[in-house]
Amino acid sequence: MSQAVDARRAAAIPPLTEEQARRRREYIQRLKGDSSWGFESVPDDFEHTWERTITPEAVRLYTDGVEEMNPWYESESPFGKAIVPPFFLSRESAHCFDPLGPGVGRVHVSHETELLEPILVGTTVRLKAKVGRKYFKRDRRYIDVNIDITDAATGKLLAREKRSVIAEYRKMGEASS
């Protein structure tokens, strides 16, 4: 491939925004940590709480990625300010196990989301994840996590989510590679 083609490709890819660069650095840092956690190392009473301010940039990155273009997400909506896309926080709630490490090999099985209030762009939300149940199904180890999403300033419940993951994909009795 010619250098001219490489240069055109490089010019077509915009540089990372500060938000993208920060998330990439955090992800790489998590990968450098211990990624050996599994079913047994997640305590039955595991909880994790974190906050996230939902910036216009984060919403734009999400809507570009899922090709969900709606003017309500960028400017005024019937609720006044711009609103957060309904499933934006489902992606954020996937970070519920971050304190344990990246969890390489974990498989997302399902999630149920209950939206109780529109969430305005600029809101700081508090996500509180709690293990709901650990169980075995078809010789695999599953964990259900319940997540409450509240307005960090008021404590008002905005949404709930239940996520199910296979914590270890290999079947019980199989040797790890």
Q: Give the name of the CATH superfamily.
A: Hotdog Thioesterase
CATH architecture, please?
A: Roll
**CATH topology category name:** Thiol Ester Dehydrase, Chain A
- Report the strand count: 5
- Helix fraction? 10-25%
**How many domains, in number, for the residues?**
1
Q: What is the N-to-C order of secondary-structure elements (H for helix, E for strand)?
A: HHEHHEEEE
Number of helices, counting only DSSP H or I runs of 4 residues or more: 4
Please give the alpha-carbon distance between the first and last residues.
38 Å
Overall structural class, as computed from helix and strand content, comes to alpha+beta
Briefly, what CATH class?
A: Alpha Beta
The geometry reads as globular
Radius of gyration (CA) equals 19 Å
Q: Please mark out the parts with pLDDT under 50 across 5 or more consecutive residues, or reply none.
A: none
Largest sheet: 5 strands, antiparallel
Strand order of the largest sheet: 1-3-4-5-2
Report strand %.
25-35%
Mean pLDDT: 83
Note down, in words, how this protein is organized.
24% of the residues lie in helices and 31% in strands. The protein is an alpha+beta fold. It has one domain (3-168): Roll (Thiol Ester Dehydrase, Chain A), CATH 3.10.129.10. It has a five-stranded antiparallel β-sheet.
Concise account of the structure shown:
This protein has 177 residues and is α+β, with helices and mostly antiparallel strands. The protein is 24% helix and 31% strand.
